[in-house]
Amino acid sequence: IASSKEKVLSLSSGEDYFKLLLSEEDRVFIGAKNRVYNIRLHDLQTASILEWNANDVAVNKCRMNSKTDCANYVRVIARKDGNLMICGTNAYSPLCRQYKLTEDDEFEKLREDSPGTAICPFDAESNATALYTGGKLYTATRAQSNGGGPLILKSYQDRKIRTTDGDSTLLNEPDFVSSFEKDDKVYFFFREIAVENINCGKAVFSRVARVCKQDSGGYFESWKNTLTSFFKARLNCSIPGEFPFYFDEIQSTSEFGQGNYKPTTDSGDRHDLIYGVFNTPENAIRGSAVCAFRYSDIASTFRGQFKGQSSFESFWLPVPWADTPKEHPEKCTNESDKIPDDTARFSKDHPLMDEAVKPTGGMPMLVFTSFKARFTKIAIDWQILAADKHYYDVMFVGTDDGRVIKAINKGQGSKVESVIIEDLQVLEPGKPVTDLKVVSNRADHAGQKLVVVSRDSVVAIPLSRCKRAKTCRKCVALQDPYCAWNSALLQCMSAETGLQNIDTGKHPQCKPDPIEKKKKRKPPKDDKLVMAAKTSSNDGCVCPEDASSEYSDKWRRVDLADTPEDLLKQTC
């Protein structure tokens, strides 16, 4: 991959904690140590750099508190009325500023600094998410420098409305992942200690939560600055069976987009979707999975029953409909301070939905087991038209050892059958992928890139490497929606026409390859065991037919009936 890798940003030493904070149609903004990089997407060049160091007062206070890294890590960037709201850790004393971009693409400061507590995290490692919409800023982070005080905050003008402080039934040591808006609601993805499971032992569950955009606080004095429309639900990413195998800890999500988890010939057969990366706990069998969720399923879950407990020591059970307010509390209102008392109290005491949001397709799109690596990030190139006249969502998944895995689901109907197209070592081994961004230009195949971010570098790679396949058979065997064999030019090219068969990886018009001396196959490495979910066969482990193919000697397909222990032992 080194020959096709394009360096965008790089440091020779140290860590800048690069983080992709805002993505727009023509540019991305990357926060870093004492800097913000404004990068143009059409040529992947740095248009401008904002230098912003921690102020002296904050640095002195930081050092007095025996902190060692007293810098300003920019961790929040949001569009605000056409300008940029930028917030940094400021040596553990968060600050925010507003800037505009001049015609020369330079940063111009608009007003004085404002406090960034409860908007921006205190340090480079803490997770946070921010979204500006309708003149209001929504953030999810921690309000205390010691990592305490988790909250979801809505701020506008001089008002700040937040989740109740210190209530573990709302937020219990959460790690926030992402957020998006849809219609009259804002949604947040995070993982937290599951309060409903505490009687059975400590466990972390993945969540999606929502608040209404019109929420202006409650009626009572103690609720005036408290969100009344906060509800959350569990996200279920698991391998189905009598005893499902769960991937409980969400790590990242894709952007919210229009796609379809399965191939379709109808360009209009698209749904509001979001893909997520989920891991097993650190002390469990190491595994990762990608699950997709329809917005309609998320919305339906929030219209369902609630979960609650009758006493502190009792189990969490579904709340009977007879005990639920007649008008379902999930419905948004323009006058949240006039919600009936019984509804307001019910909402405050029952933030958790009973049903979990199930993955579309009923199972993960991709499952990965490894002794050494896990999935970290995901990006989707939505609905790519392949030469077989089907549309595919192409998944790019980063790992914590510097690799990017490219995959699709080729399964028809209710079947999920993923194809691993490529496994690329993009970063130095051991360096985690911290962000991914697809730069897709349908009119310019050469301009299509995947931006890969680590803590100390930003690189770009092509979305496809079709020309590496030198014969028709090898081109079709890629099963890559970007690639097709051009019979006139005798080349594997990025094209929507040509010879391709993503379902089987074989095409009758491809002539046999020239006879080559077969290379001795190396045994598969234990850190490249990936399974494509299968639902309709018991083939077990399937070895590639062409053992000499440079594309096909890394992967195994495993039946869903296998136990997690089987996944770790199975070999071709």
From TrEMBL:
SMART domains per record: PSI, Sema
Q: Supply the alphabetized keyword list.
A: Disulfide bond, Glycoprotein, Membrane
Which segments constitute the Sema domain?
1-463
GO BP terms: namely:
axon guidance; positive regulation of cell migration; semaphorin-plexin signaling pathway
Provide the protein's localization. Answer: Membrane
Q: Is Disulfide bond tagged as a keyword? A: yes
Residue ranges for the region (Disordered) are 326-345, 503-527
- Where does it primarily localize? membrane
Q: Where are the transmembrane segments?
A: none
Q: GO molecular function: any one?
A: semaphorin receptor binding
Specify one Pfam family.
Sema
Taxonomically, which superkingdom?
Answer: Eukaryota
Q: Which InterPro entries match?
A: Plexin_repeat, PSI, Semap_dom, Semap_dom_sf, Semaphorin, WD40/YVTN_repeat-like_dom_sf
Coiled-coil ranges from the UniProt annotation: none
Which terms in the GO cellular component ontology are assigned?
plasma membrane
What protein am I looking at? Semaphorin
Please tell me the species this chain comes from.
Elysia marginata
